[in-house]
Amino acid sequence: MPQIEIEYSARLPIEDALHDLALALHHALALIADTEVASFKTRLSRLDHLVIGDGNPQNAMVHVDVRLLSGRTDAVKQAVGQKVQELLLTHLKDRVGDFSVQFTTEIHDLDRGNYHKIVL
C-alpha cells in the first residue's frame, strides 16, 4: 500500500527531479496517512503520446494518482491532495521553463478486501 503513479508529459525537462519528488511524497504522505514509508510504491510514467487542450506542444501535464487503503477520512484525503500539490510545485515549478503545465492530483481508495500483498 500506498500506490502512487506520476504521469508526465515527455517533453517536460523534469526527469532528474522525479526520484526526489517520489521520496518526498513517501515521507510526507506517510505522516498524513499514518502508514510506513517502506509501504509506498511509486511508478513514474513518461507520456510520449499526449494531447492537451488545443494541441499546442507547449501544453504539458503532471498528474499524480494516489491510492490508499480504504478507511481514511475525507479530511486525510484532502490533506494528502494538498501536500501532493505543494510538493509538485516545490520540486518541479522551476524546471518547466516556458511550458504551460497542468499539475493535477487524484486520491483513490484501495478496497482493503481486494488488495493483496506479499513481501519476501
The secondary-structure class comes to alpha/beta
Number of helices: 2
Number of strands: 4
Helix content: 25-40%
Strand order of the largest sheet: 2-1-3-4
What does this structure look like?
- There is one protein chain.
- By secondary structure, the protein is of the alpha/beta class.
- Strand 1, helix 1 and strand 2 form a beta-alpha-beta unit.
- It is built from two helices and four strands.
- Helix 1 (15-33) packs antiparallel against helix 2 (74-92).
- The protein has a four-stranded mixed β-sheet.
- The mean pLDDT is 96.
- It has helices spanning 15-33, 74-92, and strands at 3-9, 41-47, 59-69, 100-110.
- The longest helix has 19 residues, at 15-33.
SSE layout and pairing:
Blueprint: E1 3-9, H1 15-33, E2 41-47, E3 59-69, H2 74-92, E4 100-110
Parallel strand pairs: 1-2, 3-4
Antiparallel strand pairs: 1-3
Helix pairs in contact: 1-2
Short description:
By secondary structure, the protein is an alpha/beta fold. It has helices at residues 15-33, 74-92, and strands spanning 3-9, 41-47, 59-69, 100-110. Strands 2-1-3-4 form a 4-stranded mixed beta sheet.
Characteristics:
120 residues, alpha/beta, 4-stranded mixed sheet, 4 strands
